[in-house]
Design goal:
With about 475 residues, the chain is α+β, with helices and mostly antiparallel strands. Among the domains are: about 45-215 and about 395-415 and about 425-480, Zn peptidases (Aminopeptidase, 3-Layer(aba) Sandwich); about 235-265 and about 330-385, Alpha-Beta Plaits (2-Layer Sandwich), CATH 3.30.70. About 30% of the residues lie in helices and about 20% in strands. It is built from 14 helices and 17 strands. The protein has helices spanning about 45-55, 70-85, 85-90, 155-170, 190-200, 260-275, 280-290, 295-305, 310-320, 320-330, 365-375, 400-410, 450-455, 465-480, and strands at about 90-95, 100-105, 115-120, 140, 145, 175-180, 210-220, 225-235, 235-245, 250, 330-340, 345, 350-360, 380-385, 415-425, 440-445, 460-465. The strands form four sheets. Strands 1, 2, 3, 6, 7, 8, 15 and 16 form an eight-stranded mixed β-sheet that branches. Strands 11-13-9-14 form a four-stranded antiparallel β-sheet, with helices on one face. A three-stranded antiparallel β-sheet has the order 4-5-17. Helix 1 (about 45-55) packs across helix 4 (about 155-170). The longest helix is centred in the last third of the chain and has 17 residues, at about 465-480. InterPro entries: ArgE/DapE_CS, Bact_exopeptidase_dim_dom, Pept_M20A, Peptidase_M20, Peptidase_M20_dimer. Keywords: Carboxypeptidase, Hydrolase, Metal-binding, Protease, Zinc. It comes from Blastococcus aggregatus. This is Carboxypeptidase PM20D1. Belongs to the peptidase M20A family.
Length: about 475
């Protein structure tokens, strides 16, 4: 799961504004005012209780199949049928592979369908300092605590709360609605790929796809008051590369200069000192333009001319903080180091794992080539590990699908500015880009910086109010598609 980023430091650009520059026009704001979403009939406390129950089922992902508690995953799937009986009576449900769920809610027409996505696997909690049992599903002071509260069981519950309420009132959507719930998103699994394969085999091309991603945040842009709802249009690529150096080894009492660990360290230092270049892209330009319309005075002028000031703005963002930096460049993170197994033995092999997130406009191949150039040492082997992917295509933001999602966000959060967004992480929805040009990534929750920081970390939580409004967003969307 994937957290939106913050922009900061942009005020320094105000003096550089040119009076004749044109505006970014590819991405449009949400449009005219919409009626606020109706939350009547949605049981906030009931939804919180159901989410708490599902948190208590520890559906923890692992890349090692033998380490997965398959009984917990099966129990989760069974409990869904019990918590949402009307949904399961009205919708067709099938299981794909080991546990991905695919539901079909038949609509009144044969128009292309809407796909709503979520995943019910969660990341481990080992090594984290939780203040509460992460799988107790505690509800305290209007907050649901536990692993998966936001990522991503909270979104799954918001979807099912909306569908259950609509089915109960006898509503039938205009177009088919499919629910695609993955069981292995956190380990880059195959559940979503199986769903895409099923759609392809059946000749189904979705009208739009909506998955986790951006959220409703406050303080995202300097000078922009209130909330900003960021809707992801694309996501960066991903790649893991292993750096390997070798040496003859021997006793640690007689080392030689330039051993395997030293050469590995030089390679890592070179990559750290020579990051990938910072460049603006269309999605970030659209985000800056949409949100910047609401900034005061000089800042508004800066944002309005972001296309002309792109190179300068890219450099400012690169220095504005780790998350803003990730918007404008390919990032390289050293996540693992390995050397000798003994304290008094020279390493015959030294290894480092690089976790890389590839910027729009670059590819796996171009990324690997630049790594080689920067390292500049043929004795450092680069092993490209399986599972890499180029950045996703950029989804359309000039069509009815985006306008409908943006309008639903505005209905649920009337005071929010709606803006496009670039996800710096990966999601299951990237697979649907193969069959749909309108894949959006938006988690309809109003979350604080502290709550975002708890994703994949200790003390993950979501307020009952945010969960309630998220269900309102989904229900409003379903009524309007």
């Amino acid at each position: 799961m994937r957290r939106p980023t913050a922009l900061a430091g942009t005020a320094a650009l105000a003096a550089a504004v040119g009076a004749t520059a044109r505006r970014v026009s590819r991405f449009r704001p949400a449009g005219t005012a919409v009626e606020p979403a109706d939350l009547a009939g949605l049981d906030a406390d009931g939804a919180a209780g159901r989410l708490a129950e599902l948190i208590r089922i520890p559906t923890v992902s692992s890349r090692g199949r033998s380490e997965i508690d398959q009984e917990a995953f099966a129990r989760f799937r069974t409990r869904l049928t019990e918590l949402y009986p009307r949904t399961h009576a009205a919708l067709e449900r099938e299981q794909l592979g080991d546990g991905a769920l695919l539901y079909r809610w038949r609509g009144r027409t044969d128009e292309p369908p809407l796909v709503l996505m979520a995943h019910y696997d969660v990341v481990p909690v080992e090594g984290q300092d939780w203040s509460r049992d992460p799988f107790a599903g505690l509800i305290e002071d209007g907050v649901v605590h536990g692993r998966g509260a936001i990522d991503d069981k909270g979104y799954l519950v918001a979807i099912l709360e909306a569908v259950e309420a609509l089915v109960t009132e006898g509503f039938t959507p205009r177009r088919d609605v499919w629910l695609s719930f993955g069981n292995d998103e956190e380990v880059t699994g195959v559940g979503a790929q199986l769903a895409v394969a099923a759609f392809t085999e059946r000749g189904i091309r979705p009208w739009a796809v909506l998955d986790e991603g951006g959220a409703v945040v406050t303080g995202m842009f300097p000078g922009v008051p209130g909330q900003v709802a960021v809707v992801g249009l694309a996501e960066k690529g991903r790649l893991d590369v292993e750096l390997v150096t070798t040496d003859a080894g021997g006793h640690a009492s007689s080392p030689l200069p330039g051993g395997a660990p030293a050469r590995l360290a030089k390679a890592i230092t070179a990559l750290d000192e020579h990051p990938f270049p910072a460049r603006m892209n269309d999605v970030v330009l659209g985000m800056v333009d949409a949100a910047g319309r609401h900034a005061p005075g000089p800042l508004r002028a800066v944002f309005a001319h972001a296309d002309v000031l792109g190179p300068v703005l890219a450099r400012v963002l690169a220095r504005a903080g780790r998350e803003a930096n990730a918007l404008v460049r390919t990032t390289v993170a050293v996540t693992r180091l390995e050397g000798s197994k003994a304290t008094n033995v020279l390493a015959t092999t030294a290894k480092a794992n690089l976790n890389i997130r590839i910027a729009l406009g670059e590819t796996v191949a171009s990324t690997v080539e630049r790594l080689r150039q920067v390292i500049g040492d043929p004795t450092v082997e680069l092993r490209v590990l399986a599972g890499g992917a180029d950045p996703s295509p950029v989804s359309r933001a000039d069509n009815e699908a985006y306008a409908t999602v943006a309008a639903a966000a505005k209905a649920a959060y009337p005071d929010a500015v709606v803006a496009p967004y670039l996800m710096v992480q990966a999601s299951d929805s990237r697979h649907f880009a193969e069959i749909c040009d309108s894949v959006y990534r938006f988690m309809p929750f109003d979350v604080t910086r502290e709550e975002l920081a708890a994703l994949h970390a200790a003390d993950e939580r979501i307020s009952i109010a945010a969960l309630h409004r998220g269900a309102g967003f989904v229900r409003h969307l379903l009524r309007t598609v």
